[in-house]
């Protein structure tokens, strides 16, 4: 025979979980492999990789390949088929067998910053380090009683206890903890738009989990709320690492929906579910000032009782289009449209800022740091 074809067996090796937005090496080994063999995988929707890749000859007639793949959608994704190809000895034919892989991988929200300890170090040093000494006496939570001495503020004297003891006693206060922090995620179709290779909702989930971890380290209780055309998920405020694990699991299961968001219903429901004054962090998006009218109105209602952080993502591609010099009439139209979009978004942010809402509008790679800084600033100012 001019070409010999034996039964092929494939071995598949990949980590069981990949953080979204990160890459991992997929290792393949095929037994009884001819020289010059190439492969191609039917990539699932949540994992992207090269169209074709070569195999290198190994020991015992096996061929191996290491393929770099990137996680782009949350969920469990299966690798079903591997296509191989090689030429016959006289280069007259090409063999293209199909092998069943039968492997899967789970793409989960990215908590790399949480695992690295960077957030823990930042929050702990800010709230429990040098700043802790500064906020004692300036907060609203009772800490302890102490004898009044000359130089202390007369307003700190507890007159009732002083009368019982027949000596001046002062109350020492400290910054209040155990606040309620609500992470509200808009999962509507606008959040499916891709920025820097990932949907906006996945950038939002990454920032939300990092901020939730910062709040837990800061001694606060964290809640999660997800909505699109109607409320989907509400988790009551909880404290501790177990609460973070539950939030991570719930956010990993958030689906990519194609429905328009009903801000009026969702934010009204959120207001009804949070009677206590809380810090509410809203991750959402809008197209223009007209579509944002109901959003602004309902956020204004929330801002009367709660402290709000409004988070949106800047699109670097739109900003590049607004800054590029046009060469054609189509380029001029693109420049005008991009500039108008940026101007309308800025107008909405200014209106929200006038309502007392803290606005975080940042690129996906900067939003986490900006958001945690805003949270720490609110904690330091004791506005919750």
Descriptors:
single chain, 384 residues, alpha+beta, 3 domains, six-stranded mixed β-sheet, 34% helix
What would CATH call the architecture of the largest domain?
3-Layer(aba) Sandwich
Structural class by sheet pairing and helices:
alpha+beta
CATH class of the largest domain: Alpha Beta
Characterize the largest beta sheet: strand count, sense, and whether it forms a barrel: 6 strands, mixed
- Taken from the alpha-carbon principal axes, the silhouette is elongated
Over the alpha carbons, how many angstroms does the gyration radius reach? 28 Å
Number of helices, counting only DSSP H or I runs of 4 residues or more: 11
Q: What portion of the residues fall into strands of 2 or more residues?
A: 25-35%
Strands, count: 21
CATH homologous superfamily of the largest domain?
von Willebrand factor, type A domain
Characterization of the model:
The protein has 384 residues and is α+β, with helices and mostly antiparallel strands. The chain has eleven helices and 21 strands. It is elongated, with a radius of gyration of 28 Å.
Summarize the structure.
This protein is an alpha+beta fold.
Task: Set down the secondary structure blueprint.
Elements: E1 10-13, E2 17-19, E3 23-30, E4 38-41, E5 47-48, E6 53-54, E7 56-57, E8 63-71, E9 75-87, E10 94-95, E11 98-108, H1 112-116, H2 118-128, H3 130-135, E12 141-147, H4 159-165, E13 169-174, E14 180-186, E15 194-195, E16 198-199, H5 200-217, E17 221-227, E18 231-238, H6 241-252, H7 263-273, E19 279-283, H8 293-303, E20 307-313, H9 316-323, H10 329-354, E21 358-362, H11 367-381
């Amino acid at each position: 025979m001019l070409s010999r074809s034996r039964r092929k067996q494939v071995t598949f090796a990949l980590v069981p979980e990949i953080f979204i937005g990160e890459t991992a090496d997929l290792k393949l080994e095929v037994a009884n492999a001819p020289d010059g063999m190439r492969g191609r995988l039917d990539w699932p929707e949540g994992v992207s990789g090269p169209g074709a890749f070569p195999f290198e000859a190994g020991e015992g007639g096996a061929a191996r390949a290491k393929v770099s793949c990137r996680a782009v959608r949350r969920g469990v994704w299966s690798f079903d088929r591997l296509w191989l190809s090689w030429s016959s000895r006289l280069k007259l034919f090409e063999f293209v067998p199909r092998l069943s892989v039968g492997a899967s991988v789970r793409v989960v929200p990215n908590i790399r910053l949480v695992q690295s300890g960077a957030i823990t170090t930042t929050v702990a040093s800010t709230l429990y380090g040098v700043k802790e000494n500064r906020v004692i006496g300036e907060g609203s939570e009772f800490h302890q009683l102490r004898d009044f001495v000359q130089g202390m503020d007369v307003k700190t004297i507890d007159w009732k206890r002083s009368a019982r003891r027949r000596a001046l006693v002062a109350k020492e206060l400290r910054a209040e903890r155990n606040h309620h922090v609500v992470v509200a995620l808009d999962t509507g179709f606008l959040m499916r738009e891709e920025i820097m290779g990932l949907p906006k909702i996945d950038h939002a989930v990454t920032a939300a989990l990092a901020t939730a971890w910062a709040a837990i380290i800061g001694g606060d209780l964290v809640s999660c709320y997800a909505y699109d055309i109607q409320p989907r998920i509400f988790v009551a405020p909880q404290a501790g690492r177990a609460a973070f694990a539950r939030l991570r699991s719930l956010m990993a299961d958030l689906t990519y929906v194609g429905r328009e968001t009903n801000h009026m219903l969702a934010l009204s429901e959120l207001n009804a579910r949070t009677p206590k004054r809380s810090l509410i962090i809203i991750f959402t998006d809008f197209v223009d000032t007209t579509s944002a009218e109901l959003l602004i109105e309902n956020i204004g209602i929330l801002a009367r009782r709660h402290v709000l952080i409004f988070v949106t993502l800047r699109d670097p591609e739109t900003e590049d289009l607004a800054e590029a010099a046009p060469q054609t009439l189509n380029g001029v139209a693109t420049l005008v449209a991009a500039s108008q979009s940026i101007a309308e978004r800025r107008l909405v942010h200014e209106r929200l800022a006038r309502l007392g809402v803290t606005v975080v509008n940042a690129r996906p790679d900067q939003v986490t740091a900006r958001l945690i800084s805003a949270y720490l600033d609110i904690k330091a100012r004791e506005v919750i």
